């Protein structure tokens, strides 16, 4: 079998016994591989990892993981002075050494036997770097490589040919990256631990021109379904891109893809931007109790049956709670009563306002008093806002989220009062940035930072910002997200390459020439690195249970010596920006489980 974006084409089952010889091709001058922790720019034909890296020794690809873990690697095809057409990349089903059942050998996508999927990497050109603002505190903290053709969107191989679908044409003197996801099995009864072997093939017009052996070591341990911390991403305004689907179908599509990547996608859905409505909440409850994420509801993959951990009310300060004391208290009681009965494990809160300035403080304190003086059950409704900790709001706000990171000195004070301190978007050097120019590990490192400091939630302001932001001159117009990396414009200046986009639309009705012909949302390299980070954090907790937190922290400190408020905003980034460095620590962690 060969896997192409979940579609299996039978060409015969192969048992790989060793190195597969190179067929060669005059214009495909090199094919090499690397892990998921780097971005290889389209024109970087001298990338240092091409001679070998943690994942690829120059001849073979080596992966190692646990049951229920998703591994990923990249295949880079370098082209010479002439255009190459008809290129495809495929992966044979990984077979065990004893000729037992292969990984992914099932007709069910994301099934218990595992899954393989191949994507073409789509590049966006950044000509001018973003200004220092939300995304890094100073030039010293800026990403190392900030202009050029940067890979991000991942186009499934069954998309329209010529728009990322197979076969692919590669122009002269360019890299073309291909991303491969290997979802390791959850079935421990029929797929035993051990080595599984496969071959990655590059073909031109159906003829194999390059082969790389792939070895996967499946370890006996099982990666936990539960995430120890929450990556919360907002989403809205996606339904019009999929006119063939109902709103509920689009919601499921978005949430399922996020869930598979260990993200809680919430905030822009009807119950969260409307006044209390028991019917809306009854429809939404399946996401909270986890029944939506089960095969009976069409979900297959990691974290089956696990519900969402948080629920924001009135996202971005949407006026859903009313403007009088009586209205606010009535709404508070209704929300509190519903969650007590129907979703007692969910952290729900009133997103009272967004980034409040000094003029807003009186308003916030007044509404907070209305909640806290409520004689009913609603008096315990937590209040949330996106700002750094302010003593002037200490009696009003329960949960804080700041884009300059977590104030580690204020954190125990806040928690002693029953609240919490989260962080918001991305801001180098204290934690990873959200912008396209950031290193691939910018999104991976945040989960390591959350483990190190016992932080519970990272909030990403948007994941489907396919419309222009409402504050700018192009408000509510749709963006050409496949061609223009700039995603945030206001009346003063433009900034934010890639900000607000973790998913790309498989359909593009507003720019038909960019339509990929797929009724699905498409992932990104940044999204994949969120998943990698969340899986790393699950592994850190798993190893902690065996060897203790101090030994695990000693390893974490090798790649993340400092973060958050321990780092002055004018400093360089203190944590490693190299994917291989995290993979080396992960290897040590896996050894500790043996």
Can you give a write-up of this model?
The chain contains 9 helices and 25 strands. By secondary structure, it is an alpha/beta fold.
Helix content: 10-25%
Rg (CA only): 24 Å
**Poorly predicted tracts of residues:** 1-23
Q: Main β-sheet, in a few words?
A: 8 strands, mixed
CATH top level assignment of the largest domain: Alpha Beta
> How would you sum up the global shape?
globular
CATH architectural grouping of the largest domain: Alpha-Beta Barrel
Content-based structural category: alpha/beta
Strand content: 15-25%
Number of helices: 9
Number of structurally distinct domains: 2
How much is the average pLDDT?
92
- The CATH topology of the largest domain, please? TIM Barrel
Distance between the termini: 32 Å
Number of strands: 25
Core attributes:
594 residues, alpha/beta, Immunoglobulin-like, TIM Barrel, 8-stranded parallel beta sheet, 21% helix, disordered N terminus
Give a brief description.
The chain has 2 domains: 2-221, Immunoglobulin-like, CATH 2.60.40; 230-531, TIM Barrel, CATH 3.20.20.
Strand and helix map with partners:
Layout: E1 2-4, E2 7-9, E3 28-35, E4 61-67, E5 70-79, E6 84-92, E7 95-96, E8 115-126, E9 148-156, E10 168-170, E11 175-183, E12 194-204, E13 207-222, E14 230-233, H1 247-260, E15 264-265, H2 278-289, E16 310-313, H3 325-342, E17 347-353, H4 361-372, E18 383-385, E19 399-402, H5 411-416, E20 420-424, H6 441-453, E21 457-460, E22 486-489, E23 494-497, E24 504-505, E25 521-522, H7 525-547, H8 549-559, H9 579-592
Parallel strand pairs: 4-13, 14-15, 14-21, 16-17, 17-18, 18-19, 19-20, 20-21
Antiparallel strand pairs: 1-2, 1-6, 3-5, 5-11, 6-10, 6-12, 7-12, 8-9, 8-11, 12-13, 22-23, 24-25
Helix pairs in contact: 6-7, 7-8, 7-9, 8-9
């Amino acid at each position: 079998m060969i896997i192409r974006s979940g579609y299996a084409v039978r060409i015969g089952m192969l048992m790989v016994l060793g190195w597969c010889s190179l067929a060669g091709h005059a214009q495909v001058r090199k094919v090499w591989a690397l892990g998921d922790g780097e971005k290889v720019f389209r024109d970087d034909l001298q990338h240092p990892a091409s001679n070998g890296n943690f994942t690829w020794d120059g001849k073979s690809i080596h992966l190692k993981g646990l049951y229920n873990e998703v591994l990923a690697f990249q295949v880079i095809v370098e082209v010479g002075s002439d255009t190459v057409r008809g290129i495809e990349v495929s992966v044979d089903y990984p077979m065990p050494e004893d000729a037992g059942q292969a990984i992914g050998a099932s007709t069910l996508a994301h099934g218990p036997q595992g899954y393989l999927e191949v994507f073409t990497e789509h590049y966006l050109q950044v000509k001018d770097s973003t200004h220092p603002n939300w995304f890094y505190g100073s030039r010293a903290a800026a990403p190392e490589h900030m202009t050029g053709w940067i890979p991000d969107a991942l186009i499934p191989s069954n998309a329209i040919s010529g728009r990322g679908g197979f076969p692919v044409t590669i122009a002269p003197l360019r890299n073309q990256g291909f991303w491969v996801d290997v979802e390791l099995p959850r079935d421990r009864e029929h797929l035993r631990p051990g080595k599984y072997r496969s071959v990655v093939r590059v073909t031109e017009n159906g003829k194999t021109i390059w082969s790389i052996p792939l070895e996967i070591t499946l370890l006996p341990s099982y990666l936990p379904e539960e995430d120890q911390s929450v990556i919360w991403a907002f989403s809205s305004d996606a339904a019009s891109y999929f006119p063939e689907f109902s709103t509920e179908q689009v919601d499921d599509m978005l949430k399922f893809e996020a869930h598979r990547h260990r993200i809680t996608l919430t905030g822009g859905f009807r119950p969260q931007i409307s006044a209390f409505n028991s019917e809306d909440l009854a429809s939404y409850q399946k996401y909270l109790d986890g029944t939506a994420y089960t095969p009976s509801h069409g979900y297959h993959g990691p974290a089956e049956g696990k519900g969402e951990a948080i629920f924001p009310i009135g996202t971005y300060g949407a006026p859903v709670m009313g403007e009088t004391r009586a209205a606010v208290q009535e709404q508070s009681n209704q929300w509190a009563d519903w969650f007590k009965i129907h979703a007692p494990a969910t952290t729900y809160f009133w997103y009272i306002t967004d980034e409040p300035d000094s003029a807003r403080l009186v308003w916030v304190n007044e509404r907070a008093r209305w909640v806290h003086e409520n004689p009913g059950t609603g008096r315990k409704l937590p209040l949330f806002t996106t700002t750094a900790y302010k003593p002037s709001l200490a009696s009003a706000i329960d949960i804080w989220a700041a884009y300059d990171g977590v104030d580690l000195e204020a954190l125990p004070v806040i928690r002693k009062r029953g609240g919490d301190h989260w962080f918001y978007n991305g801001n180098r050097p204290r934690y990873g940035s959200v912008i396209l120019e950031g290193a691939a590990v910018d999104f991976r490192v945040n989960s390591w930072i959350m483990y190190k400091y016992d932080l519970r939630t990272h909030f990403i302001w948007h994941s489907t910002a396919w419309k222009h932001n409402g504050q700018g001159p192009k408000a509510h117009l749709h963006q050409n997200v496949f061609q223009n990396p700039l995603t945030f414009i206001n009346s003063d200046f433009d900034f934010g390459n890639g900000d607000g986009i973790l998913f790309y639309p498989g359909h593009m009705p507003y720019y038909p020439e960019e339509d990929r012909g797929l009724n699905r949302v498409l992932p990104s390299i940044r999204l994949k690195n969120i998943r990698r980070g969340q899986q790393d954090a699950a592994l850190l907790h798993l190893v902690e249970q065996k060897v203790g937190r101090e030994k695990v922290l000693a390893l974490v400190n090798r790649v993340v010596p400092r973060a958050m408020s321990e780092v002055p905003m004018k400093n360089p980034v203190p944590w490693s920006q190299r994917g291989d460095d995290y993979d080396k620590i992960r290897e040590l962690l896996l050894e500790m489980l043996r």
